[in-house]
TrEMBL record:
<feature type="binding site">
    <location>
        <position position="15"/>
    </location>
    <ligand>
        <name>substrate</name>
    </ligand>
</feature>
<comment type="subunit">
    <text>Monomer.</text>
</comment>
<keyword id="KW-0963">Cytoplasm</keyword>
<dbReference type="GO" id="GO:0005829">
    <property type="term" value="C:cytosol"/>
</dbReference>
<dbReference type="GO" id="GO:0101006">
    <property type="term" value="F:protein histidine phosphatase activity"/>
</dbReference>
<keyword id="KW-0904">Protein phosphatase</keyword>
<feature type="active site" description="Proton acceptor">
    <location>
        <position position="44"/>
    </location>
</feature>
<dbReference type="InterPro" id="IPR038596">
    <property type="entry name" value="Janus_sf"/>
</dbReference>
<keyword id="KW-0378">Hydrolase</keyword>
<dbReference type="Pfam" id="PF05005">
    <property type="entry name" value="Ocnus"/>
</dbReference>
<comment type="function">
    <text>Exhibits phosphohistidine phosphatase activity.</text>
</comment>
<comment type="similarity">
    <text>Belongs to the janus family.</text>
</comment>
<protein>
    <recommendedName>
        <fullName>14 kDa phosphohistidine phosphatase</fullName>
        <ecNumber>3.9.1.3</ecNumber>
    </recommendedName>
</protein>
<dbReference type="InterPro" id="IPR007702">
    <property type="entry name" value="Janus"/>
</dbReference>
Length: 117
């Protein structure tokens, strides 16, 4: 299963979710964690619902949201900061999220903190 591990808006401050995607194929118990963050979302659940619907429509994948937070993406200074939590899903493991973002943005300074909302 190939799914991009991080997909976020190119700039701004916005909500994000960390989603665990499981294979539903028999004998394949693999899973991958993915980061999705978009400014259009009023709620963390808006992102999860849209992404899960797209990934699950083929019947081969199952999704679960394992937390959320916020991302500040400054493309001019090449910095991404992950922080905060989701009222509905709880706090994502920001250490995992930042590792996914570092792969997607290898020239960026990617940091995280448990403080903030």
């Amino acid at each position: 299963m190939f799914i991009p591990e991080a997909d976020i808006d190119p700039t701004g401050v916005f909500k994000y979710v960390l989603i665990r995607v499981h294979s539903k194929e028999e004998g394949d118990d693999s899973s991958v964690d993915i980061v999705r963050g978009y400014a259009w979302a009023e709620y963390h659940a808006d992102i999860y619902d849209k992404v899960a619907e797209e990934l699950e429509k083929g019947g081969q994948l199952d999704c679960e949201c394992i937390g959320g937070g916020r991302i500040k993406h400054d493309c001019q200074s090449k910095k991404i900061h992950v922080y905060g939590y989701s009222m509905g899903f709880g706090k994502a493991n920001h250490a995992v999220s930042t590792e996914k973002l570092k792969v997607r943005y290898p020239t960026y300074e990617v940091t995280w903190a448990d403080e903030g909302y």
